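Before a colleague's protein record goes any further, I have to sign it off. Thanks in advance; the entry in question is below:
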Amino acid sequence: MLPDAKTLLPAAAIAVAFLCPTAFAQPAASSHIITSQKLDWSTAAALASEAVRICAAQGYSVTATVVDTSGHEQAVIKGDTVPLQSLSVAYRKAYTAYSYGLAFNKNTTSELIAAGVTGPANGALNTIPEVLFVPGGVTLRRTSDHAILGGLGVSGAPGGDKDEACALHAVEKLRNTFQ
């Protein structure tokens, strides 16, 4: 005998909540429309541009990527002479900072690494294509309530610590726009 809708609906709702934590971010009363919060495109572009500018002032050509709450690229700014791999690495750092910052309440990929959030000893998390536990990713949070809005990843400087410093400075400079 097949289960009825009363049995399946609560289980389906729990599954969606675990698989897509932003799906229930702001449900409207008595509505079947789901909304989520993220930076607008101009702020995302300004943030990525600022990170590239800060690194360029130090002599580093980098790529900066902002991911939104769906984990997709929202803005990408490339420095003039970045290596090819910096495009995918910046995205993966941003994705990791967003998704694992959300799951483990950390603000940077360095914090995730320091907390040992690189996964089990068998390295299972590192086999997920988008995940990269390397310094240079910053979790983006709304200033009023610290809700997560996405992630910023920077790649191309000679060391992830330098990438992350540029990302953190950019976030700090534009933080007041994360209302």
Q: What stands out?
A: Confidence is low (pLDDT under 50) at residues 1-20. The longest strand covers residues 148-155.
